[in-house]
Amino acid sequence: MSPVAIDVSRIKGIFFPHLDRKTREVVAAGGRFVYYTTADTATSILRNQQFWMRNTTTMNDYMEVDHGFDCLNAAYKTEPGNVFSRALDACFTGLSEDIKNYFNEWLPHIRRDTYITCVSEHSAEEDQNGRLSMWRAYGGQAGIALVIKGDMMFNESDALGAYSHPVAYLSADRFAVEFLEIAKNIENEAEYIKSLDREIVKSFLFSMLRFAVLCTKHPGFHEEREWRVVACPTLRPSKLLVPTVEVVRGVPQTVLKIDLLNQPDQGLVGLSLSELLDRIIIGPCEFPQVILGAFRQLLAEAGVPDLDNKIAVSDIPLRQL
User: Fold this and answer.
1) DSSP letters along 57-126, please?
2) CA nearest to 235, candidates 135, 110, 136, 142
3) CB neighbours of 211 closer than 8 A, spacing ≥ 6?
4) CA proximity to 316, closest of 288, 278, 293, 277
5) Residue 87: CA atoms inside 13 Å, Cβ hemisphere, count?
6) What is the CA radius of gyration of the chain?
7) Which of 118, 144, 178, 234 sits most deeply, having the most CB atoms within 10 A of its CB?
């Protein structure tokens, strides 16, 4: 029997309903994202034309990985987990135990060998001033928002070995509801799932569980509207993710560097700085015009065109303490 062609849209709807919904929302809103950071970090990104991915064990996000795992573990031990296991075994005998064991084998790597870069959804209403809560959280004394076009976030190339996924802001109870939704999806689509190769289905399930752990945060952070670009070199090695040791806030650590260069032979396009960057917003700070001049020069040196329409200075009043 010939293998059934994989319907990507259908697979997303079954195993990744949150990703499916959020992708549609972001595209409908203009399809842009924003990276809030300090002027120092933004200068490094533009000058070197690189983004860095940092290990979750060195970031605040490490505790969030624990939150995601705790939510998954709790859901597994209640009725949603029972429904999920029964649905899997109705498709392939023993699949529920198989995927649980496989995921547990990889869990130490998911905890220790995961690198992420975080961006936020960006709306047209934020083009001039940005988002005050994000300036306060990530901007430091002089913040910069790098607004990027979303094409790269939805690119289906495997060249980078890095994949984007929206954060779900869930309590344990709400997580269980969404986990049950996936279990019901599997029940409803059992005939289609059974037509696929078992190992392919297992890979979808593993990815679903992995991103559930890595991209679930406490609901109190919901206003961040975060998406994560996630890489695990042990799981998906890529020559385009370059590991180097850097000192970040006094801590020597391995980071993965993504060069902002297209790789058209590998289906990776839209990553060059001039294509990726939509605009820059200079946040509330003491010397906005000085920073404006500096970033105009950085963009000119990087060959980014149309500078007059690329940079805005937020007019949120600077609060002097």
Assistant:
1) GGSTHHHHHHHHHHHHHHHHTSHHHHHHHHHHHHHSTTHHHHHHHHHHHHHHHHHHS-EEEEEEEE-GGG
2) 110
3) 16, 19, 165, 230
4) 288
5) 25
6) 21
7) 144
The answer to whether the CB of 168 falls within 8 A of the CB of 216 is: yes
What backbone torsions phi and psi does residue 225 show, to the nearest 5 degrees?
Answer: 50, 55
Q: Phi and psi of 106, rounded to 5°? A: -90, -10
Q: How far apart are CA 111 and CA 213, in angstroms?
A: 9
Map residue 9 onto helix, strand or coil: helix
Strand 115-122 and strand 50-55: the pairing is: antiparallel
63 token code pair? 């505790």
pLDDT at 321: 43
Residue pLDDT, tens place only, 166-176: 999 999 999 99
Tell me the helix, strand and coil percentages in the chain, rounded to 5.
50, 20, 25
Residue 283 CB contacts under 8 Å (≥ 6 apart), including other chains = 36, 130, 135, 139, 142, 143, 144, 145, 314, 316
CA distance 241 to 233: 8
> Mind listing the pLDDT tens digit for each residue in 125-145?
999 999 999 999 999 999 999
For residue 163, give Cα distances in angstroms to 5, 147, 153: 22, 19, 8
Mean of pLDDT values over 140-159? 92
Q: Which 8-state DSSP code applies to residue 305?
A: -
Q: Give bridge partners of residue 228 from the DSSP assignment.
A: 118, 165
Residues 149, 167: Cα–Cα separation, whole Å: 19
